[in-house]
Amino acid sequence: MTGAADRERPIGVFDSGLGGLTVLRALHRRLPCEDIVYFGDTARVPYGTKGARTVVDFARQDAGLLVARGVKMVVVACNTASAFALQHLREVLPVPVLGVIEPGVATALRATRGGPVGVIGTPGTIGSGRYQEGLALGRDGLAGLSPERILVGECPLLVPLVEAGWLDHPATGMILDTYLEPLRAAGVDTLILGCTHYPLLKDPIAAYMGEKTVLVDSAEALAEAAEALLGERGLRRRDGAPGDREPAGRLEFHLSDIPWKFAEIGARFLGKPITDVRTVSLEEMEEAGRLPTEG
Ligand code: DGL
C-alpha cells in the first residue's frame, strides 16, 4: 500500500490500557497532521505481570481491531506487548508494525558514552530479555554492548503508583530510590524508561540518577521511528498548509472498559482531556484476533 488513499489512513496505536497515551501524545506532537486511532485494553490491563502466551493473544486481538479500522501502520505502544508479540504481529499483519523496544535501544546506543546502560520495565518486559538482546546485538550500525554493560531492573510497583497519580508522593520517591539504587551505584550513563508509565516519573527519576545519566523516553524514540518508517514507505500524510496553527490530525479512542477515574487518569497521560471514546466488547476483540490471518 502506497497510494494517495493509503496515506490518508490513520495510524493505529494500542496499549494494555491508558499508559500508551504517552506514546500517542509524542506521536501527535511529532506528526500533527496524522489521524490516530488508539485502542487501550483497559478491561485486561496490566499485561506486565502476565505470561507470554496471554500477552501474544491479547496483542493479536488489539492489533486486529486496529487493522479492521483501516489503519496504515500499527504502533505497539506497550513495552510488554512489544517484548512478547512484535515478531508475531509482523508475521500476521498486512501493515507495517512498530514497537517501542527497537527505537529505545537505538536511542540508548547513540546516547551511551562508554558506561553501563540500564533498562527499567515491567517483570514481563525485563523477563523477556528483549531489551538485553537488542542492546547486546547493536542496531542501526551501532555496536552492541558487552554483558557487563547491560543492567536491568523490574519495577512492578510504578505502574499502579502512576495510575494513582502519586507522581511526587514521598512513597513513590522511596520506591523509586529502592529500584534505582543499584543502577545509580553501577554508574549507568543511560537509562531506558522501558514502560509506558515511566515518562510521567521522568523528573524524580532524573533527580535521583543525576544529570550525568541520559534518560531514554521510549515514547519519544518511537515517534521519531514512526516518522521515519512512514517516510520510507511513502505513507506520510501531506503536512498542513504553511500558517496552519491547529494540528489537523484527528484522535479517536477505543477502550475495552471505561475504568473508574478514567477521565482523570487519561488526561494525565495524554496531557489534555480525552473526548470521543468508544467501548469495544471482548467478543468484538476475539473476532478481531481472527482477522489478520483468517479474515
Ligand atoms: N503498558 C505496559 C508496558 O509498557 C505497562 C502497564 C501494564 O503492565 O500493562 O509495559
Give keywords.
295 residues; alpha/beta; Rossmann fold; 2 domains; six-stranded parallel beta sheet; four-stranded parallel beta sheet; 13 helices; 10 strands; binds D-glutamic acid
Structure description:
The mean pLDDT is 92. Strand 7 (190-194), helix 10 (202-209) and strand 8 (214-217) form a beta-alpha-beta unit. The strands form two sheets. This protein has a six-stranded parallel beta sheet, sandwiched between helices. Strands 6-5-7-8 form a four-stranded parallel beta sheet, sandwiched between helices. It has two domains: 4-99 and 221-289, Rossmann fold (3-Layer(aba) Sandwich); 102-218, 3-Layer(aba) Sandwich (Rossmann fold), CATH 3.40.50.1860. The protein is globular. The chain has helices at 4-7, 21-30, 52-68, 79-92, 101-111, 123-128, 130-137, 158-163, 170-185, 202-209, 218-232, 262-270, 282-294, and strands at 11-15, 36-40, 73-76, 97-99, 117-121, 150-154, 190-194, 214-217, 251-255, 277-279. The longest helix has 17 residues, at 52-68. It is of the alpha/beta class and 295 residues long. Residues 15-17, 19, 45-48, 78-80, 122, 125, 159, 195-197 line the site of D-glutamic acid.
